[in-house]
UniProtKB/TrEMBL annotation:
<dbReference type="InterPro" id="IPR029021">
    <property type="entry name" value="Prot-tyrosine_phosphatase-like"/>
</dbReference>
<dbReference type="Pfam" id="PF00102">
    <property type="entry name" value="Y_phosphatase"/>
</dbReference>
<protein>
    <submittedName>
        <fullName>Uncharacterized protein</fullName>
    </submittedName>
</protein>
<dbReference type="GO" id="GO:0004725">
    <property type="term" value="F:protein tyrosine phosphatase activity"/>
</dbReference>
<dbReference type="InterPro" id="IPR000242">
    <property type="entry name" value="PTP_cat"/>
</dbReference>
<dbReference type="InterPro" id="IPR016130">
    <property type="entry name" value="Tyr_Pase_AS"/>
</dbReference>
<dbReference type="InterPro" id="IPR000387">
    <property type="entry name" value="Tyr_Pase_dom"/>
</dbReference>
<dbReference type="InterPro" id="IPR003595">
    <property type="entry name" value="Tyr_Pase_cat"/>
</dbReference>
<feature type="domain" description="Tyrosine-protein phosphatase">
    <location>
        <begin position="1"/>
        <end position="179"/>
    </location>
</feature>
<feature type="domain" description="Tyrosine specific protein phosphatases">
    <location>
        <begin position="114"/>
        <end position="179"/>
    </location>
</feature>
<dbReference type="InterPro" id="IPR050348">
    <property type="entry name" value="Protein-Tyr_Phosphatase"/>
</dbReference>
Length: 179
């Protein structure tokens, strides 16, 4: 299946000292797209530290993150970001931040998530696509499953939810929690 050719890096939202490692991973993997499925704070609890500036530049270890553009839409925000490291070419990435999906909940409207997945256009990426929520298994797994299922439907006209879930759980334990 060609949808399995897409490489995802499923991650938890970075906190504290891990933020520098997270940004370094974006650099080392030459990531072109980051999908963020959590807000920084949800129900008064921190879920993820911010790894981009509101404007200008912020250094994370040896890498400087520069915000180039922000587009705010109803259910998500799209940021154009550059990563800079001395003596190396600048790398560009697009940060897709879905803001309408509470932890342990469902998106405000399911069609907003489908629209978001199509906007991200994962298949156009030559580098791994980083997907993260807070813990890196619930919303992250659901988004990756949605991508795989939509790709299956487009390619074959049918979907296998069970096979998709089993494959995700083989790749990452606890992917998509169930009650």
């Amino acid at each position: 299946d060609s949808h399995n050719d897409v490489k995802f890096i499923a991650a938890q939202g970075p906190f504290g000292a891990v933020v520098n490692d997270f940004v370094r991973m974006l650099w080392e993997q030459k990531v072109e797209k980051v999908v963020m499925l959590t807000n920084l704070i949800e129900e008064g609890k921190p879920k993820c530290d911010k790894y981009w500036p509101d404007s200008g530049n912020t250094a994370f270890g040896e890498i400087t993150v520069k915000l180039k553009d922000t587009q705010i839409l109803a259910d998500y925000v799209i940021r154009k970001i550059e990563l800079e490291k001395s003596d190396a070419p600048t790398q560009s990435l697009t940060h897709y931040h879905f803001t309408s999906w509470p932890d342990q909940g469902v998106p405000v409207t399911p069609w907003a998530l489908v629209d978001f997945e199509q906007r991200v256009d994962i298949n156009s990426s030559t580098a791994p696509v980083v997907v993260h929520c807070s813990a890196g298994v619930g919303r992250t797994g659901t988004f990756i499953a949605l991508h795989n299922i939509l790709s299956q439907a487009k390619e074959t006209g049918s979907v296998d939810f069970y096979k998709t879930l089993v494959k995700l759980r083989e790749d990452r334990f606890l992917m998509i929690q169930t009650p």
